[in-house]
Amino acid sequence: MYALYQGIKNGLSGHNYDVDEAKEIPYGLQFLIKGEASGMLRIYSNKKKRLKVDCSQLKGNIPAVEAILMSASALKSEDSGRGKAAPLSLGKKTEPADGSFDLGYPIIGSDESGKGDYFGPLVSAAVYVDEESAAWMEALGVKDSKKITDAKALELAAKIRKTCDGKYAVIEISPLKYNGLYRQLKKEGKNLNSLLAWGHAKAIEEILRQTDCQLAIADKFADEKYILGKLQEKGKKIQLIQRPRAEENIAVAAASILARERFLLKLKQLSDECGVHLPKGASARVIEAAETLMRQQGKEGLAKVAKLHFKTTLQLSGMNAEQD
């Protein structure tokens, strides 16, 4: 990898570019260049162990840099041993063509929890991740919260908060507030995506109050315009990427864990307050718990702990379609 960096440095220097010394980042190197185009260049190894060069952070005459990089003297891939040119990732900030989610750093990742759970709040979270915190999170074993146990998520959440130096935000919408907002959205001809987008945008905005960042990534649940439309002044300047399986990015994985932690803690609190164990999901056990709660506390009690627009509500005695 350093051999490729040296080749790029020699090629750019020969065209009157200033090239800084490379710094190590997870899976690669990054360095600043100044010339007709200026900004950060990154070299990294993808999942297939092939080296890639990312020019997405450059501003100015990018085609000129691209031409230099494509020259044989600048790009001798050390992973081929036969002088084969390394593949490039050029242009705007997008994920590499191989489908990985190494978009560089710093980056803000956002995710939500509770969307598919009848009981409990809807929680959105966002986390700011730079090169150093990304490396630490990799070492801690941070991954999509759906791929770890609840106990592990609770354990990792505290470490994530410390690792990201407090640059995170968690937005909680209680069941009671959720039900009111959902009814209002329905009257306006909107759907749940608007509520999800608000949570993501709010969490991202909270982080942008603490630190500048030009890139954010979230799981794709709808068109990008949903979140973009909810972002305020600072958020309007950010590059937002939404992709399926975005949790493969370490920043989104970290956000998923913080969101899951808050959901789990709040679900337990609601269980304690209403005196009925509230299971996760929307299973037969959930219906049984809801029936018990209905008998004890009626519709008003259910509205404090459940998302009433779920089909689960229609399966309960004494409830009807008007309740959503």
Topology (SSEs and partners):
Blueprint: H1 2-13, E1 18-19, E2 23-25, E3 28-34, E4 37-45, E5 51-54, E6 59-60, H2 62-69, E7 88-89, E8 107-113, E9 122-129, H3 131-140, H4 150-163, E10 168-173, H5 175-187, H6 192-208, E11 215-219, H7 225-230, E12 239-243, H8 250-274, H9 284-303, H10 311-314
Parallel strand pairs: 5-7, 8-11, 11-12
Antiparallel strand pairs: 1-3, 2-3, 3-4, 4-5, 4-6, 8-9, 9-10
Helix pairs in contact: 3-4, 4-8
Give the overall average pLDDT.
Answer: 83
In the CATH hierarchy, what is the architecture of the largest domain at level 2? Answer: 2-Layer Sandwich
By CATH, the topology of the largest domain is: Nucleotidyltransferase, domain 5
Instruction: Say which CATH homologous superfamily of the largest domain is assigned.
Output: Ribonuclease H-like superfamily/Ribonuclease H
Largest sheet: 7 strands, mixed
Instruction: Specify Rg, calculated over alpha carbons.
Output: 24 Å
* Helix and strand sequence: HEEEEEEHEEEHHEHHEHEHHH
The number of domains: 2
Number of strands: 12
Distance between the termini: 57 Å
Proportion of helical residues: 25-40%
Instruction: Tell me the structural class.
Output: alpha+beta
How does the overall form come out from the CA principal axes? Answer: elongated
Give me the number of helical elements.
Answer: 10
Range of strand content: 15-25%
What are the low-pLDDT stretches, counting only 5+ consecutive residues below 50?
72-101
Return the CATH class of the largest domain.
Alpha Beta
